[in-house]
Each structure stands twice: as C-alpha cells, then as structure tokens.
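User: Let's play a game. I give you a shape written as tokens, and you guess the letters that built it. Ready? Here's round one.
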C-alpha cells in the first residue's frame, strides 16, 4: 500500500511552523498592525514576465489565483486601513524545486510613513521574533546591490558592459542562453541567483537594497536605483520589499511595458488590475511593503534542505 498519504514534513517541523506563526501574530499585534484577509481569486492577474499566474474558471468567468495579495492590500491602504498585514496562501505556476512549491505561504505587510530602509529594520525584528533561539543572529548585514554584486561576483552591475556580465557567467561554467545574452537584466538576474544570492546570509540575516531602476517592479525610483530590497538567510531569498510607488500613471505605464515584453517573449497577455489602478488614482498613502516567503524561513529555522520537508503536503501529495 502506498504511503503517499503521509505528510512530507515531520510533525516536529509542523509544530515549529505553528510556533513561528504565533510569534508573527504576536509581533504584529504588538506593533499595532491590522490583520486583514483578501481574496485569493481575482479577475485580474500579475503582468510581470517573471511570474506565471494559475488560471481558473469561476462562475463561468476567467479568473486567476493570486501570486501575492499586494494589489488587494493596497486597495485597503487607499481606503484608509493604516498599517496592515496578512498570512495567506499564494500560487505561482511553473515554480517547483528545492525552494519552490506552486502553492506556498506568504506573510505580507505594509507600514505607513516608512521608507525601505526603515522597513528593513521591521523585517529584521519580525524574523528575529519568529526564529527559534538556536537560529538567533547578531545585527543584520546590509549591502547595496552594487556592493553585493561587486563583492561576490567581482563586477559592477551598473557600469560594466553586457559583454563583461556574460563573460563572468561563462567563466563560472554557466551556459548563458541566447535570449539572455541580449538582455542585461536577465544576465544580472542569473548573476544574482547563481553567483551572489547563495553566498548571502550564512552567519546573519543579509539585506541587499537599491536595485537597478530597470528592476523596480512596484517600487519608487531614485535616479539609477529602485527603492527596493531583498533579505537572505542561508543563501535563500526570503523576502522582497519596496518603498511603494503611488503614481497611478507610472504604474499603468509599467504594466503596459510588462505586457509588451510578454508579447515579445510569446507569453500570454494578462488582464491588468483596473481596481488597483483606481485605488492608486484615489490616493495611496506614503508607505513601504514587503512579502516574506514563510516556508523558506521555516527551512532556515529547521535546517531543511528542501521545501517539501517543511510543508504538511507538498504539491506531489496535495
């Protein structure tokens, strides 16, 4: 008889998960953030070329499972909710591997009146509160994107020409796909993902901030850099945070550029979230927000080498 009915995570790990989620709730309660609950099914989808939404059909309509609660949470911010947070399941198609499961748990929150530097401190305090004593760390390390890439890849991500980026990847034995060789940001993503990220956060939490403006996503831009950060522990990217863009016209333009890039790459078009754009038109308060991959943090807490080992039921047993 098959035993694939059994959980993929040990019961002891599920107990650690529960304790970490309790710690998160206690932290947000103590810092006066409102817990919210937004829909996981939406008529709109993410336009980002790096993310694939899971399509669904609901009441005869084409719908999508959200890749993040971001757009709905920002609608709440525009409506006057103040600091908010939530724990939710999110879904991303085509993502499976050591640190990816198509369905995973995200903790997302927004703070009013904070920039991305202040939010990094908030992230550090939350992670410190959630991790068991065995994983306690000293004060976090903070590196600019330029510093991190220079330190661990030996190149300047802003000034070095594309040919140098390609040569650096090839010198590490990485076969660079033809389409990537014509895309500076794609090369930088490979460098960060293969050469830099795995070197970060091995003795303490590491933040990388001020990414190239071309990688702003939903962050504000300051000259050549985006007000964005990522946090790493044990070589795993844990979270992605932004000093949030509040300009509706600029956000629409970014969505349209995404859709043009999707068409160029032969990816399906995705419906823009017009309600989110309307909320920005109404007015988003000055704020910063961040999404934390909770399952990856549990991997760090327990020393697990594969995400399946921290999930009650991984995708293959769902």
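Assistant: Ready! My guess for every position:
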């Amino acid at each position: 008889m098959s035993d694939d009915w059994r959980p993929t995570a040990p019961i002891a790990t599920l107990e650690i998960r529960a304790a970490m989620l309790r710690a998160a709730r206690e932290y947000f309660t103590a810092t006066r953030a409102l817990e919210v609950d937004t829909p996981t099914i939406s008529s709109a989808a993410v336009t980002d070329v790096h993310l694939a939404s899971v399509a669904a059909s609901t009441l005869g309509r084409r719908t999508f499972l959200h890749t993040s609660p971001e757009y709905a949470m920002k609608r709440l911010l525009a409506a006057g909710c103040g600091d908010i947070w939530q724990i939710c399941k999110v879904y991303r198609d085509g993502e499976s591997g050591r640190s990816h499961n198509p369905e995973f748990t995200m903790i997302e929150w927004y703070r009013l009146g904070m920039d991305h530097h202040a939010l990094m401190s908030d992230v550090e305090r939350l992670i410190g509160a959630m991790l068991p004593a065995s994983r306690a760390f000293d004060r976090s390390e903070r590196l600019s994107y330029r510093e991190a890439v220079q330190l661990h890849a030996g190149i300047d991500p802003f000034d070095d020409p594309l040919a140098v980026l390609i040569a650096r990847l090839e010198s590490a034995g990485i076969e660079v796909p033809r389409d990537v060789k014509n895309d500076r940001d794609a090369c930088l993503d490979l460098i960060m993902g293969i050469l830099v990220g795995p070197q970060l956060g091995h003795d303490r939490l590491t933040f990388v901030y001020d990414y190239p403006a071309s990688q702003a996503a939903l962050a504000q831009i300051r000259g050549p850099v985006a007000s964005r950060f990522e946090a790493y522990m044990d070589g795993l990217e844990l979270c992605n945070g932004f000093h949030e863009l509040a300009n509706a016209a600029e956000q629409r333009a970014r969505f349209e550029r995404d859709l043009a890039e999707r068409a160029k790459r032969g990816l399906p078009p995705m419906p823009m979230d017009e309600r989110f754009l309307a909320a920005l038109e109404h007015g988003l308060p000055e704020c910063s927000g961040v999404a934390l991959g909770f399952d990856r943090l549990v991997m760090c807490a327990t020393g697990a080498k594969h995400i399946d080992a921290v999930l009650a039921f991984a995708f293959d047993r769902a």
